[in-house]
Amino acid sequence: MESKMELPATGERYLPSMRGGIRYEHLHRYALSLNFVGGKDVLDLASGEGYGCEILSKNAKSIIGVDIDNECVEYASRKYSNIPNLEFLMGACEAVPLPSESVDVVTSFETIEHHNKHEEMLREIKRILRPGGMLIISAPNRLTYSDKPKSISSNPNNPYHVKEPYDYEVISLLNRHFKNVKVYGQRLATGSFVFPLKNPEQSGLNCYTCDSSNSIAQKVPALDEPIYFIAVCSDEPITTDTNVYSIFIDSDDDLLMVLESQQIQALEEVAQIKAQLHQTEILLAQSQSQLHQMEEVLEQSKSQLQYTEAEFAESQTQLHKTNAMLSLYLSQLHQTEVVLTQSQSQLHQTEQLLEESQSQLHETQIVLEEFQSQLHKTQIVLEESQSQLHQTEEILEESQSQLHETQTELEESQSQLHQTQAELEESQSQLHQTQAELEESQSQLHQTQAELEQSQSRLHQTQAELEQSQSRLHQTQAELEQSQSRLHQTQAELEQSQSRLHQTEEILEQSQSQQHETQVLLSQHKSQLHHKELRLMQSQSQLHETQTAFKQSQSQLHETQTEMAQSQSQLHETQTELAQSQSQLHETQTELAQSQSQLHETQAELEQSQSQLHEIQTELEQSQSQLHETQAELERSRVQETLAPQTNGQTQMQYQLLVWDAWYAYRQGNLIGMAACLQQSLKCTHLSRTETLVNWLESFVRFSAEKGEQLDTYSLTNSFEWKQVTRSATAIKTVVFAQ
Q1: d(Cα 739, Cα 733) in Å, to the nearest integer?
Q2: For residue 270, which of 22, 432, 639, 699 sits 20 to 30 Å off, Cα-Cα?
């Protein structure tokens, strides 16, 4: 019982109600698969709506449809529930819910481009296929479907496609999992058909094709640029080409008539669009003219607005300046009035002080006369004391002179001793200091360079700051000059008031000066009297101390002479040790020079030995390279002798030898050389590109087997050089596939 509601259209999924090219492409794949599923257990992977399973169920023993979308599985189970040998399950391409070796044929159309788990999908298909089972699979050709769209079926920006394969990627993927692979092409095309008008009985048909010279041949034409690939894969030999070569015609849906009808409609729509476009261009020209006029009016308005704004800004600036100057003048006037009031008050106080100073001056003169009388008496006593002090000082100076001479000699001896010891220590540490100084010099050099860079950086910053400061200084000076000009008038008035005050102060200062001089004289007389009394007492005390010091000096002189004799003895011993140290230093330096000379000679011999070793290694590598080349030429000659009976013509022989050269380069790890040989071989063969790629792989496998080796086809076909040469072949040879 069929479901009444159809699945929603997604723009990618095919539904039986659809018409046009998509109907032809999908139904054709299942139609040609009918020849392979007769009496067999079949799996349709990514079965979608289920229409394909219904078609195959007519010939298959049993069929299972697997899809990852649960909605599709439930819909198909309801719609096709009346077919007894048909079942639908939910599962993924890389995880099929079937036991191993459970089906004979797997069909999967337009599936691998919707995910990137191609290897996992192929391994899962191999798991569930019985021995000798078959895979029929299709995929879009990325070159003509997306890169260079060549058909109405092409969709370069299909959002549902994750990874569309190129032809060489399809071939490499399938050959990694199946021993035998045949790849065909599919696309929509126009042609001429001759069929009965009614009741057709013949199931076969004749195929005719012609080339650019109108040469007609009865054969299946090659499909140069297919939109889709259809591959038949098995581990058993495949001999079913005639079952695949086919055409599909829908008696109810003639694509060419539909396309011609659509073309007529499109031409009518184009004519209407051109008429509308002409009217639109006229309206656009009128609108642009009006827009140009409006832009001119707008620019004039903007110009007037800018001029008005500039005048308004200047007026506001002048107003702010005038207000600032008015405030400054009022402040200066207030300050001047305050200063004037203070000056008048000071003048009154100064006059009062002048009167008081004159009274004090008279009293001070009387006291001065009394002190002068006392001073005269004191001077007489002081002169007597100074005479006695002078005699005592002469004796003390003689004793101190002798003591000073003795101490000087002692200091000289001790100084010589310290110098000699210092020289000895310096001579012993010269070698270590020289090395340390060298390391420090290098370290200081690096530090100095770093500091120099930092200093230069700071200098640039300082210069920038200096320029900014100078700029601000010039601005400040200009403002200062304006302020000074405004203050000049006020200062003139203030100077007049200060002049009157200054005259009054001068009179006061003269009176105070006279009073101060009198007080100073009085203080000096008192101080002189006090100092002379103190000096008298000090002179008597110094006389006693000088006598005691004289005795101590004689004792110290005797001790100093003894120490000087000991110091001279130590000086002689130290000089002897210094001479020995200098001798040892000279010997050490001589030995160091000899060691350095031997080191240089050893290094020179080592460099000569290394140079000789390098030359020997180079000669050895050249010999090995020549040996490999000789072996390669020998093997190539053997291959040429083997291939001579099997090939027809010099071109085919050249092609086989280039393929062998490519295999030998790959075996030696020279992938670039392999790619170059394969590239040259394309010029020596008339095979299609697909046949050429298959022949390359088969030849590589055969050459490896002859050497008792197993070829890693996965590593080979996934190498960058292999992919590059298969891509570049697109520009050299036309892609040829069997229909």
Answers
A1: 18
A2: 22
Dihedral (C-alpha) 18, 90, 170, 739: value to the nearest 10 degrees? -40
**Residues 495-529: pLDDT tens digits?**
665 666 566 566 556 655 655 665 566 566 556 65
Q: Which of 50, 45, 46 has the alpha carbon at shortest distance from 103?
A: 45
Q: Given CA atoms 731, 734, 736, 739 in this order, what sign does their dihedral have?
A: positive
User: How many angstroms separate the CA atoms of 558 and 565, rounded?
Assistant: 11
Distance separating alpha carbons of residues 655 and 668, to the nearest angstrom: 20
Max Cα–Cα distance, the chain, nearest Å: 175
Q: Which amino acid is at 324?
A: A
- Distance, in Å, from the CA atom of 553 to the CA atom of 558, rounded to the nearest integer, reads 9
Tell me the C-alpha distance between 571 and 423, whole Å: 12
Report how far apart the first and last C-alpha atoms of the chain are (Å, whole number): 38
Q: What is the pTM of this model?
A: 0.41
Q: Which residue has the tokens 């006392």?
A: 374
The three-point CA angle 481-487-488 to 5° equals: 90
User: What is the rounded CA–CA span in Å between residue 605 and residue 610?
Assistant: 9
The string of pLDDT tens digits covering residues 457-489 is: 666 775 666 667 556 656 655 665 665 666 566
Cβ–Cβ under 8 Å, residues 375 and 522: no
CA distance 654 to 680: 10
Q: How far apart are CA 596 and CA 599, in angstroms?
A: 5
DSSP 164: P
Query: What residues contact residue 115 under an 8 Å CB cut-off, 6+ apart?
Result: 93, 121, 162, 163
Please tell me what DSSP assigns to residue 678. H
Structure tokens at 634: 């020998």
Closest by Cα among 222, 116, 113, 10 to 735:
222
DSSP letter assigned to residue 166: P
Per DSSP, 683 falls in state G
The β-bridge partners of 234 are 134, 180
Q: Are 700 and 714 in contact (CB under 8 A)?
A: no
Classify residue 527 as exposed, middle or buried by CB count within 10 Å of its CB (0-12, 13-18, 19+): exposed
Distance CA 674, CA 666 (A): 6
Which single residue is written with the structure tokens 């000086």? 571
**Axis crossing angle, helix 167-175 with helix 689-706, rounded to the nearest 10:** 30
By mean pLDDT, which of 89-93, 100-104, 414-418, 576-580 is the weakest? 576-580
Q: Which fold has domain 21-195+204-253?
A: Rossmann fold (3.40.50)
Query: Which residues pair with residue 489 across a beta bridge?
Result: none
Q: How many percent of the chain have pLDDT more than 90?
A: 19
3-state secondary structure 76-88: HHHHCCCCCCEEE
**Half-sphere exposure for 235 (CA within 13 Å, toward CB):** 10
Cα distances (angstroms) measured from residue 520 to each of 364, 512, 524, 678: 11, 12, 6, 123
Q: Which amino acid is it at 144?
A: T
Q: Sign of torsion, CA 459 463 468 473? A: positive
Q: Is the pLDDT of residue 89 over 70?
A: yes
Instruction: Please give the backbone phi and psi of residue 173, each rounded to the nearest 5 degrees, phi first.
Output: -60, -50
DSSP string for 525-575 = HHHHHHHHHHHHHHHHHHHHHHHHHHHHHHHHHHHHHHHHHHHHHHHHHHH
DSSP structure class, residue 145: I
Q: What is the identity of the amino acid at 48?
A: G
